[in-house]
Amino acid sequence: MSEMDLIAAILPDGGLQLEWESTLKTAGKTSRSFQDDLHKLSPLGEGRWLLALGFSNPKGPLSPSLSYWREVAATFTRRLIQTPDLETLRENVTCGLSSSEIADWLDRAPMMTGLDYLDANFLKRIWKQLHDAWGLEIKKYAGPVAAYVKERSPNAHLVGRIFFHLVENKADDKPFAFLATYSTRLNQEGNSKHVPLKFALQEFSGDRKKLLDLLATVSEAAKNSSVLKGMLDSGSIFNPMAWSANQAFPFLKDIPVFENAGILCRIPNWWKGGAAPIRLDLQFGNQKSSFVGMESILSFEPRLLLDGIPLSKPDIEKLLAESEGLAFIKNKWVAVDPVKLKQTLEAYEKARQVADKGGLSWLDAMRLQLSPEKMLDGGHDSRVEVGVSHGAWLSNVIESLQAPQKLPDIRPGSAFKATLRKYQQTGLNWLELLHRLGLGACLADDMGLGKTVQVLALLNHLHTSERETSAPASLLVVPASLLANWADEIKRFYPDLSFFIAHPSMQPPGAFKSKTPGWIKRHRLVITTYSLAGRYDFLKNHSWHYLILDEAQAIKNPGTRQTRILKKYHARNRLILTGTPLENRLSDLWSLFDFLNPGLLGTAAEFKKYTKALSTGAAGYAALRQLIRPYILRRLKTDRAVIRDLPPKIEMKAYPDLTRKQIVLYQKMVKELEAVLKNQDGIQRKGLILSSLMKLKQLCNHPDQYLGNTGYAASESGKFERLGEICRTIHEKRERVLVFTQFKEIIDPLCRFLEAVFGRPGLSLHGGVSVKKRKTIIAEFQADAYMPFMVLSLKAGGVGLNLTRANHVIHFDRWWNPAVENQATDRAFRIGQKKKVLVHKFITRGTIEEKIDRMIDAKKQLSEDVIAAGSEEWITEMNNEQVLDMFRLSLSEQ
Description:
With 894 residues, the protein is an alpha/beta fold. It contains 37 helices and 28 strands. It is globular.
C-alpha cells in the first residue's frame, strides 16, 4: 500500500523545491496535515518553508531529504535564537556558517533528487535565503521577537543576558575557574559589555522585578539542573569560583540544559559537543595487499585513540583507576566513565584477537565502515565508540579512486581512433585502477559525456596488455534501442575490435541454434540486450572477462527476473554505466551494488535495517557515502573540470528498434508499394512515393499514428520506449526537455506519455495555438516552477522562441534538413542558456530514416543544395529499384 510523502528536490537551476512522491505506507509517518501546511508555503520561496521547517517539531519521521533540510534549517533557527540582543538586532542579525560546517553538511547529505547539484555554494545560498526569510518575517511582525519565536516553537527560549564562563586555571588543586556575567544594555554606539553578575545586585538593588527578569533564564535552567539550583540557592553564582575537576564535571554535563534555557556558555573547546571520547579505531591496509578483488586480505591493526592521539593499554588501565569525573592524560582532559572504559578495553581485546588471525578481506573491512561495532558482537546498544580508518597504503588507493585526476595517464593502443578529452582520460585511468584492484566500477557520467568511448578505451587497453592477451570475451548488455549506437561507436572509435551482436534482428537465421556457439571464442566482445541475456543459456553459462551493463538502472529493482539472472552471470569483473543519478533511492543503490560488488552493502535485509536507522537523522549517510564513493565516478556537464572540454551543443543519435507490430506493418506497406509502383509514372508515381514516405515516417513514430487509432501504447513503438528511457533520466535530474515533431496529430499522445513519465503535465505548442496563448505557454515554461517538457510542432516551434530553461532537445522524427533542425534546436541553444545542450536525434534502425540519415552524413547521391533545401522530392527521381531499396527494412545490418 502506498501514500504520498513530501520530499525536497534540488533543481539544476539552483532551486530547492517541495514535491509529492509516492512511498510505501509506514507506521509513525509525519502527519499529512503538517506536510500539507509546509507545501502551501512552497510558492512563497524556499526561504519561507525552510524557516517554518526549522522552527517546527514534527511528530513522526520525515522523508530523508526533508529531514536533512530540517536539520540545516534548525541549525539556523537555533543559532538565531542563541544570538545575544536579537530583540534589538531583529532583521539585522547575522548567523555565521563556517567552511567546516559546510563540509560536514555535504558529507551528511542523504540520497535525494538533484544530489549532484549540492555543493558549498548551494548551501551558502540556502543559508542566505533563511536570513532573507527571517528578515521579511520579523519586519512585518509587530510584537517582540520572543513572542514570534514562542508562536512558532513553544519550547524555544531566546538567549537572555546571562553568560556562564568556564576556563582552565593553572592551579593544580583547582584547575578550573567559573564566572557568571551579564550584558549591559546597548549604548549609543550600539555596543554592550559584559560585567560580573555580582554588579547586578547593585544595579537592581531597588528593583527586585528587574533582577528577576535578568535571572529568568537562570531560574528556568535551575529547574533541570541540581548544580545550578544549588549555586542559585546559596548565592555563590554571583561570585567567581575556583573548581576542582570533580566540581567542574557535573557543571559541564549540564551545559545542554543551560543553553536550552537561553544561557550562553563559554567553555573550553575540548568539551564543545561533549567530552572527547576514547574510541576504538580499526585501521586497515597499512601494507599493500598481495591479491586483488573483494577477497584480497588487508592488514588490520586495532588502536585506542583519544581525540586522534594513540593511547596504550596501560593508559586505559590508569584511567580505570580513577573515579568518575575528569582526568588529565596526554595533555588533555577526558571524561572518565569506568563502565564505558572497561567495555572499550574489552572491545580492544576482541579486535586484537581478530587481528592476530591475519587480517580481514577487502569486502569485510569496507563493510565495517557502516557498522564497525559488528566486529565486537556488541550490537548497536554497545557504549563503545568504534570507528574505521585506512592505513597508509589503503589511504593512497582510496584517495586515488576518489580523486582520479591525479592518476598517471593510461594510453590506449594505436587501434583506438578517438582522441580522449581530459576528463575521459581521467575516466580511463580510474577504470584501469579498479581493474587492477579487481573491483567493480560504476561509470555514472552525465548524458553526453562519452561513457561509451571510455569503455572502448578500457577494452582496447586490456586487449593490448600482455596480461590480458588470453582473456575470454567480454559481454555487454544494453537496451535494444542502443544496439545500433554501440555498433556505430565501435566502428568509429575501435574498428579493429572483433564484436558480435547476439540479437536475431542483426544476425542471419539460425545463428543461435547451437548450445555452445563457436562465435563467442572468435570475438573479444559480445553485445546483447537485457531481455535476451535472460533467454540464451549459452550466454548465461559462459565465463566472461567483463560483464558490462549499459543503462544499468535496468537492474535497479532486485526482485525482477531480469535482475536476478544477470547477478548469477560469471565474470572476472563487472562494470555498469548509467547517466541516471545513482544516489536518489537507497533501494536502487543496493541492487546496483549487489551486482557490482556483491556483499559490499550486505544482504537486502541487512541494508534495509541499516537504512531504516538513517531515518532518524542525516549523520549516518556520511558513512554510506564514503563506502560507495571509490567505486562510482560521476561528472556533470556543469563541472568546471569538464565544461572547458565540451562543445556548447552535444548532438547524439538514438537508434530505436521497430517493435514486432511496426515491422509487420512496415513490410506489408513496402510490399504493397512494390506491387503498384511499376504501374505508375509521372505525377502519380511521384505522389505515391511521397505519400508512402510520409506513411512510413508516421509508422516509425507509432503504428497508431499510421493506422489513425488513438491508443498509442508505448510498448508498440520503439521511439516511445527510447523517449521514455531518456526522459526518465531527465526527470531524475529535474532538467527540462523540448520534443520536436513534424506531425501535429502526435503531439497530444506524446504529451500524455510524457506526463506519465514525469509524473506531472507539461506543455505543447503547434500552429493552432493563438499568439496570446503562445506567450503564456512560453512564460510558464521559462518560469522558476519546474515544468519538465514541451512538445512542439517543428514549424510552430522552429523560430522566434526563447526556451532556454531546457537543456535537452529531442527530434522525435527527422525533417532531414539540417538548417530547419538547427533552427528548432536554437530555441534552447541561444543567448541566455547557462547549461550544455544535449540534442537527441531519433532514427529508427533499418528503416528509411536510417538510410537517408547515412546519405546526408556521407554527402553521397545528394548535393549540398538538395540537402540544404530539405526537399524529399529527390527520392522520386530514383528508379523503382532504388526507391524500393531505400524503403525496405534492413534489420540484419550491423
